[in-house]
Amino acid sequence: MSKSTAPAPSRQARERLRAERERAAWRSGRVRHAALTAAVAAVVGTLVAVAIAIQSGRAEDDRPVVPPAGATGHENLIIPSGPANAPATVTVYEDPRCPGCARLEHELHATINRLQDEGKLRVEYHILSFVDRIVPGKGSRFAANALAAAQDVGKFRAFHDALFASPPASENEDTFGNKQALLALGRKADGMDMAKFTTAVTEGTHDTWVRKVQEAFDRQTEIQATPAVFFKGKDLVMDPEHPLTPTRLTELVEAETSR
To answer: Selecting from 3.90.980.10, 3.40.30.10, 1.20.1260.10, 3.40.50.1980, what CATH number does the domain 74-257 have?
Structure first.
């Protein structure tokens, strides 16, 4: 049986085929060019974003460290509250976004205020901002700066009480990441100089100081969780045999007062 043969394509057909192939090649080249352009743009965009972030970080690093008025301790990283000559001193480590810290403050703040007013207790606060690293947000840092701003105008205790009386429902809620929320709490502190407080909160006057406080905390190994309340070298929160209650705190302070 003989093989059948197809008729050879005409010259016109061959030209049409060549033209289609050229158009297809051109379209393919255009797609590759567009893809390459998009890829280059994406890389450039990423590099620009990284550069901006680095520059922003450098700009913040270059800002001077501004401790709040009256700050004490090594590098002025502690905010003191209460009379300097009080017979008893407790040291508190807390983060404004920490739910456990808010619960402890709710339990103890009235007793602490009373003992301070009686001249018996001084509290040294380390205001931390590590929750921002665990749960994305800026609330810890912004609130810590606001606490320092309140210290500047002599209203640390009043603002501290207002802040911890209105904590986020959970660590996942970055309530204090909104500076307007902090300003609203500032207005609850009787006698707050809102002009100065607003400027410091809005501009982040103490942001670099806040970072320094956290860096110092990161270097230590003794404290593994917050809140931590130290009295005579012992963390009262980590003493299950003697839960830290208003009565317990009062007993410890009164014992120092009677010495």
So the answer is: 3.40.30.10
| pLDDT tens column, 36-75 | 444 444 444 444 443 444 454 444 567 899 999 999 999 9
Gap between the Cα atoms of 211 and 205, Å rounded: 12
DSSP H or E run through 215: helix 207-219
Domain positions in the chain are: 11-62, 74-257
Q: What is the 3-state secondary structure (H, E, C) of 23-77?
A: HHHHHHHHHHHHHHHHHHHHHHHHHHHHHHHHHHHHHHHHCCCCCCCCCECHHHC
Neighbours of 160 (CB within 10 A): 26
**Residue 155: how many CB atoms within 10 A of its CB?**
20
- Write out the H or E segment, with its range, that includes residue 208: helix 207-219
This prediction's pTM:
0.77
Q: Which residues 6+ apart lie within 8 Å of 86 measured at CB?
A: 116, 119, 120, 121, 122
pLDDT digits (tens, 9 = 90+) for 183-200: 999 999 999 999 999 999
Cβ distance 182 to 143 under 8 Å?
yes
Residues 6+ apart with CB under 8 A from 257: 87, 88, 120
The C-alpha angle 49, 53, 58, rounded to 5 degrees, equals 145
